[in-house]
Design a protein that fits this description.
Strand order of the largest sheet of chain A: 6-7-8-3-9-10
Number of helices of chain B: 11
Radius of gyration of chain B: 19 Å
Number of helices of chain A: 10
Oligomer: heterodimer
Structural class of chain A: alpha/beta
Number of strands of chain B: 0
Number of strands of chain A: 14
Helix content of chain B: over 70%
Largest interface: A-B, 36 and 36 residues
Order of helices and strands of chain A: EEEHEEHEHHHEHEHEEHEEEHEH
Distance between the termini of chain B: 33 Å
Order of helices and strands of chain B: HHHHHHHHHHH
Distance between the termini of chain A: 34 Å
Shape of chain A: elongated
Chain lengths: 311, 264
């Protein structure tokens, strides 16, 4: 059974008492396999946080069912909470407790105590390089350290499933990269299933095996990046630059070409799986006896897929 | 219920509240400065008015009661307000905790702080204004203290429900609600002096009966035949009702997204 099975999730809120209800999620279905890192992408107000909060037992859906780790996210919420955890954007914890005290507090909430709590806190402090700051109060930590503490807290109960709501927002690039590497390492070494929301497409590309695109509360598409690329007909970019001008050739009929654009000295091709077709295309070009100055291949990236889907 | 696990969760909230209190200079003010000011201002006023020792005791009991309840209920009210101020509410509620863990943990600290305030104010009243706290005996004293803490628990639970429903705006309620109750229960005066209507309201406040019970040791007649029966039975009913209200508010918070809104 998948780690997450969401079926027909709907959610609406009122902006003010007795005001009209605003639909935030429309019939969202999703399945996430155990051990995967799944990214939910979408613009602001797409419903990402609402969706992740329903799966994380913090919000009840109006309609639909969410089963997480085989448990109903509403009816069996307390049993489920033992096995999940969450780190969210802009870490917030009690300002006057130190790093160590905050971790101990959350550890106790999961029933840890005595030697096992001390050992787990020490392990996480070591893992996230927080030893130097263990006695520093939360309000005096830098943004990066706060986020590291948030991740450490999210692992205090050794969860099987981790929800990360925009985990690197507001961090400097180095710190964001460090956090991403940590997320990848956790997934690889412990098999932790991770559901993350982000609007950083590079981040999703680096971390996620699979992504889903949420816009105005609807899941528009989901799948692995190459799979989406094929489904959307978005080929890789192949540019061939000629030394003495563009030769006459029916570029549209070259193997795998989905679209092409002619320039005076080059042709820009959109090719389905360029890596596999490159040899055949270059062979066809060679028959024109026109000298090739440069060949550039660029795989389609998530940004293009994102724009294709959400615009 | 798995006892060691549940005790750890209760302990988590108790330790957290205790640490916040220890590091918060205002908490020291709440426990020492304001109760000290209250007992001296009230005590000196009775001296200026040349009141007889029984009346002085009557009024001082009111001052001690008010401050003890205020402090004890604050810790319960703060149980969620700390999380609201820190915007960490969703981190607490994603953990496998129940309302009873929050109430018991925070209540423990409220109990300790309330007891401390009661002892300090009692000692001040004895040393400076000749109040005789030993007259009701240990039994009478313990019953009165239990009554005060039951009332503090009711107020605290109602304020918690308001915080869960209205967030930080309910902060004012943490103070206002208990003052309103104290105004009606005959804190500095017998309930008979209250205007009609208010007097009837006083009858449905359990603290009214606990004050009557405690003051009867000092020669003031109890107006109800069974003050302890009324006091405890009302307290139990209100406690159950406030817990049910809190439980319902939490359930509705999951529906309305309040936990998320208060964490932003």
């Amino acid at each position: 059974m998948p780690a997450i099975v969401a079926q027909g999730i709907c959610k609406s809120f009122r902006d003010r008492p007795f005001g009209p209800r605003k639909q935030v999620l429309h019939d969202v279905d999703l399945e996430v396999e155990h051990g995967a890192i799944f990214g939910i992408l979408g613009p602001n107000a797409a419903g990402k946080t609402t969706f992740i909060s329903i799966l994380a037992t913090l919000l009840h859906p109006d309609k639909g069912r969410a089963r997480v780790l085989g448990l109903d996210a509403v009816k069996e919420a307390n049993r489920l909470r033992e096995r999940i955890n969450l780190a969210a954007t802009g870490a917030h914890f009690l300002w006057c407790l130190t790093v160590e005290e905050n971790l101990r507090f959350y550890g106790r909430l999961y029933g840890l105590g005595g030697r096992s709590l001390r050992a787990r806190v020490a392990e996480l402090i070591e893992l996230f390089d927080l030893a130097e700051h263990r006695r520093v109060t939360f309000e005096r930590l830098s943004t990066g350290l706060k986020q590291r503490l948030a991740l450490a807290k999210a692992l205090i109960n050794t969860p099987e499933l981790l929800f990360l709501d925009e985990p690197t927002t507001g961090l400097d690039p180095d710190m964001a990269q460090l956090i991403r590497e940590e997320i990848l390492r956790l997934n690889r070494e412990t098999g932790l299933t991770i559901l993350l929301t982000t609007h950083n497409l590079r981040e999703a590309e680096m971390l996620c095996g699979e992504v889903g695109f949420l816009k105005q509360g609807r899941l528009l598409a989901r799948g692995r990046i190459p799979e989406l690329q094929r489904r959307l007909g978005l080929g890789d970019h192949l540019t061939i630059v000629f030394r003495d001008g563009l030769p006459a050739l029916d570029y549209a009929r070259l193997p795998g070409v989905l679209a092409h654009r002619l320039q005076p000295d080059r042709v820009e091709l959109r090719v389905d799986r360029a890596e596999e077709r490159l040899a055949a295309i270059l062979e066809a070009v060679a028959h024109t006896r026109q000298a090739v100055a440069q060949v550039r291949v660029k795989e389609v990236d998530l940004t293009e897929i994102y724009h294709e889907i959400t615009h | 219920m798995r006892l060691p696990t549940d005790l750890r969760k209760i302990w988590a909230f108790a330790v957290r509240n205790a640490l916040v209190n220890r590091r918060n200079v205002f908490a020291i003010f709440e426990m020492l400065f304001w109760p000290g000011v209250a007992i001296f201002s009230v005590g000196l006023l009775t001296r200026f008015l040349k009141l007889d020792p029984e009346t002085v005791t009557f009024i001082l009991i009111g001052a001690v009661t008010m401050n003890t309840i205020q402090i004890a209920q604050l810790d319960l009210s703060y149980a969620l307000l700390y999380s609201v101020w820190a915007k960490s509410l969703r981190h607490e509620f994603i953990a496998p905790i129940r309302l009873s863990h929050i109430l018991a943990g925070s209540g423990l600290v409220g109990l300790a702080r309330g007891l401390l305030v009661f002892v300090i104010m009692g000692l001040f009243s004895m040393w400076f204004f000749q109040m005789d706290l030993s007259r009701p005996g240990w039994g009478g004293l313990l019953i009165f203290i239990a009554g005060m803490f039951l009332n503090a628990a009711i107020v605290g639970a109602v304020v918690l429900a308001l915080v869960l429903r209205f967030g930080q705006r309910a902060e004012v309620a943490a103070w206002a609600f208990s003052y309103l109750m104290l105004l009606l229960c005959g804190l500095y005066y017998p309930v008979e002096v209250l205007p009609p209507g208010a007097r009837e309201l006083a009858q449905i406040i359990p603290l009214t009966y606990f004050l009557e019970y405690f003051r009867h040791f000092y020669g003031f007649p109890a107006y109800s035949a069974h003050p302890l029966l009324y006091g405890f039975s009302q307290s139990v009913i209100y406690l159950l009702a406030s817990y049910a209200l809190l439980w319902y508010t939490l359930k509705s918070a999951y529906q309305r997204g309040t936990l998320l809104r208060l964490s932003e």
